[in-house]
Amino acid sequence: MKKLLVITDVILVLTAVILIFAVRHDIRPAIAPTVLAEEMTPKEEQTTPIDIEQIQVENFESIHGYWMNPESDIADRKIHVLENAVAKNGRNFNLRYGGINEQTGQVYLWMYLKGIAPENGSRFEIYPKGTAIPVKLADGSIDYTGKHDPTFKEKDRIVMEGSARTVEELKSLVLYRDTEERYQNSWSNTLEKNIEKS
């Protein structure tokens, strides 16, 4: 018992000495790690710019990756582009160069299922950052100027369902490059496996 009291006294004396030393030498107490301000500031997107010339020769590398719209009112609004294919809602679609939209000057692809003629698929329109997406106005006319375009023009965008849409439709249909790749799902892994097989 006496030994235990001696050990306790020694620990108390050492603690007092350490506290006195810390106060006299202005040593800061240990604190939980914090995030530096520079880590909190958003980093600039480091993505490959969309290369229209390469897309025209069916090299889709500049649009590879995950595209999504977290603010869409359509469930699961995300895709994964890899090689010449797209994974969407658990299904794999092929991609083929379609042409240049005469009204917008933007490139589009055909997105289609195996066994279906590409022209019978959906238009897969690509809008590099800074370009306007056409908007169908209430009177039925189409605005090509970008005045009514509700999307973030500072980002690359894809609209898979083609043709001019209303402001509300565009808000839900547009997809943005997912620079953080937050939505990597098993269906995209399936896409990679299917591409390796072909």
From TrEMBL:
This is Uncharacterized protein.
